[in-house]
């Protein structure tokens, strides 16, 4: 059944929000967030992604207002200026920009595409993805991979982990220093590898699962040891620099545990935070979060501006392809329904004709093949013109014609023909998004309907009222 599904998205990210606001908008469990969204009236598909510098969610609904209502709870704990609500086309374009690294704090960073793939797999397991979000997300991943293989967008500093090490090297003298990395996941591993290339003398890697930390320690190019996460407070007392990047829901280092640490630089990349922000008040302790990496990332951004322009052009190209895919799928569903309806009528009438002929004379197999072939040929020729018209209607956003075809050929179809009000509702005011990101909204035909249809062509299925057939379809049928 064709339905005028529309994607609505909401994001709280580093470009508009603080670390605390991102944390407030984040769910304790992403799978639970998807389940809650799917349980919201009107929501057919749902997807969410959370990283250290963003919390985003997307839904597919029949109307844009349903999508905004479903996502409102995510924005409730956050000031309005930190929340960006995205309508249909803005959501599609943002997902491509996200995968390509254009929305990252470190322009072009590689980690986000892996995080996006993980979020997609989680959403699949939670049964949140349907045909619309599946197509949108697969296109985003494709764009992200193209951006990294066809441009220089990810050359140089490629992650927050490596940016944190650059910041640490500027803030303190790392020659002979001891560094502590909290977390042996992807970001922790990147930070460990980056700081091992500096002049540090000793590296400690703390992780809940010690074998994972051991694996990282064995691969870096400096003296490194693995410890359990419970040993992190004692290790922090000996460390000159701490880079935190675990997935712990609670603080790994409390303020009082850093009270005796002395001169210690802490860079907290985790979301939620690994280090209690109150520890910044302890003598000698300095804590930076991802907001402090702006200077580092700004330099990277400047070096990658040319590559970013190439990626923007790539996104424009892939965005148009995605919209064309959505339109083609809508037209194909209407065409499939039309042919299924015609096939039912053909089979019924051929069966009736053969029964009558059998009653008067025995039909040979050749006779039956000729009759079947004639019926197939009539169906193909009669539906060729409507098929062409439906494809053209989809390309021109003429959803009224497509919906009318569905209602004509499928008596059980209950999709409404879009009205001007419905179009206005889908074409929401997207004040928080970029000015050039316009919604994709089903649009009704502006052509005037004549006083009456032309003379009915021969060969229409029994029971079909010519008054209900769009004029252009009748004219094309007549021409055949």
TrEMBL record:
<dbReference type="Pfam" id="PF01488">
    <property type="entry name" value="Shikimate_DH"/>
</dbReference>
<feature type="binding site">
    <location>
        <begin position="183"/>
        <end position="188"/>
    </location>
    <ligand>
        <name>NADP(+)</name>
    </ligand>
</feature>
<comment type="subunit">
    <text>Homodimer.</text>
</comment>
<feature type="domain" description="Glutamyl-tRNA reductase N-terminal">
    <location>
        <begin position="10"/>
        <end position="151"/>
    </location>
</feature>
<dbReference type="InterPro" id="IPR036291">
    <property type="entry name" value="NAD(P)-bd_dom_sf"/>
</dbReference>
<keyword id="KW-0560">Oxidoreductase</keyword>
<keyword id="KW-0627">Porphyrin biosynthesis</keyword>
<dbReference type="InterPro" id="IPR036453">
    <property type="entry name" value="GluRdtase_dimer_dom_sf"/>
</dbReference>
<feature type="binding site">
    <location>
        <position position="115"/>
    </location>
    <ligand>
        <name>substrate</name>
    </ligand>
</feature>
<feature type="region of interest" description="Disordered">
    <location>
        <begin position="410"/>
        <end position="480"/>
    </location>
</feature>
<dbReference type="InterPro" id="IPR006151">
    <property type="entry name" value="Shikm_DH/Glu-tRNA_Rdtase"/>
</dbReference>
<dbReference type="GO" id="GO:0050661">
    <property type="term" value="F:NADP binding"/>
</dbReference>
<keyword id="KW-0521">NADP</keyword>
<dbReference type="GO" id="GO:0019353">
    <property type="term" value="P:protoporphyrinogen IX biosynthetic process from glutamate"/>
</dbReference>
<dbReference type="Pfam" id="PF00745">
    <property type="entry name" value="GlutR_dimer"/>
</dbReference>
<dbReference type="InterPro" id="IPR015896">
    <property type="entry name" value="4pyrrol_synth_GluRdtase_dimer"/>
</dbReference>
<feature type="active site" description="Nucleophile">
    <location>
        <position position="52"/>
    </location>
</feature>
<comment type="similarity">
    <text>Belongs to the glutamyl-tRNA reductase family.</text>
</comment>
<feature type="binding site">
    <location>
        <begin position="109"/>
        <end position="111"/>
    </location>
    <ligand>
        <name>substrate</name>
    </ligand>
</feature>
<dbReference type="InterPro" id="IPR018214">
    <property type="entry name" value="GluRdtase_CS"/>
</dbReference>
<dbReference type="InterPro" id="IPR015895">
    <property type="entry name" value="4pyrrol_synth_GluRdtase_N"/>
</dbReference>
<comment type="function">
    <text>Catalyzes the NADPH-dependent reduction of glutamyl-tRNA(Glu) to glutamate 1-semialdehyde (GSA).</text>
</comment>
<dbReference type="InterPro" id="IPR000343">
    <property type="entry name" value="4pyrrol_synth_GluRdtase"/>
</dbReference>
<feature type="domain" description="Quinate/shikimate 5-dehydrogenase/glutamyl-tRNA reductase">
    <location>
        <begin position="167"/>
        <end position="296"/>
    </location>
</feature>
<feature type="site" description="Important for activity">
    <location>
        <position position="94"/>
    </location>
</feature>
<feature type="binding site">
    <location>
        <begin position="51"/>
        <end position="54"/>
    </location>
    <ligand>
        <name>substrate</name>
    </ligand>
</feature>
<comment type="pathway">
    <text>Porphyrin-containing compound metabolism; protoporphyrin-IX biosynthesis; 5-aminolevulinate from L-glutamyl-tRNA(Glu): step 1/2.</text>
</comment>
<feature type="binding site">
    <location>
        <position position="104"/>
    </location>
    <ligand>
        <name>substrate</name>
    </ligand>
</feature>
<feature type="compositionally biased region" description="Acidic residues">
    <location>
        <begin position="421"/>
        <end position="440"/>
    </location>
</feature>
<protein>
    <recommendedName>
        <fullName>Glutamyl-tRNA reductase</fullName>
        <ecNumber>1.2.1.70</ecNumber>
    </recommendedName>
</protein>
<dbReference type="InterPro" id="IPR036343">
    <property type="entry name" value="GluRdtase_N_sf"/>
</dbReference>
<dbReference type="GO" id="GO:0008883">
    <property type="term" value="F:glutamyl-tRNA reductase activity"/>
</dbReference>
<feature type="domain" description="Tetrapyrrole biosynthesis glutamyl-tRNA reductase dimerisation">
    <location>
        <begin position="310"/>
        <end position="410"/>
    </location>
</feature>
<dbReference type="Pfam" id="PF05201">
    <property type="entry name" value="GlutR_N"/>
</dbReference>
